[in-house]
Write a structure and sequence with these properties.
By secondary structure, this protein is an all-alpha fold. Helices cover 69% and strands 0% of the residues. The longest helix has 19 residues.
Length: 124
């Protein structure tokens, strides 16, 4: 069995298991991986205050990525810091917010792809 098939099978088992779980079961499970929701909201607000304080330095895409990263940081700080999904999600949001996937596709020019998606700090 290849890795892709194993992954698909694991996802199918997860979906089947989630159908059998009650809302309370799901909340209890998430509390283990994500931490306490109320404490998380406090941590999130602190992070967002820092992000908002420097809002003028970032554009909308970066802001959205940072809010999503903040949510993942909350889960790491208040929940299971060894949950790999939290860390992988941060990598994804940082890639999107920094437009790193766009930067790799360019020919080392600082010209933005479109006016609303400026790519900055590319290697010259």
């Amino acid at each position: 069995m290849n890795k892709e098939t194993e992954h698909e099978l694991a996802e199918l088992h997860e979906k089947e298991r989630s159908l059998e779980m009650t809302t309370e079961d799901i909340l209890n499970e998430r509390r283990n991986t994500h931490g306490d929701f109320i404490q998380g909201s406090v941590t999130f607000n602190v992070l967002m205050e820092l992000i908002n304080k420097n809002r003028k330095n970032i554009d909308g895409v970066q802001y959205y990525a940072l809010t999503m990263i903040a949510g993942k940081l909350v889960r790491i700080l208040n929940g299971n810091s060894h949950e790999t999904d939290h860390w992988q999600d941060i990598i994804g949001y940082a890639t999107l917010g920094g437009r790193l996937e766009l930067a790799e596709s360019l020919d080392n020019t600082s010209e933005p792809l479109v006016d609303i998606l400026p790519v900055v700090n590319l290697k010259q």
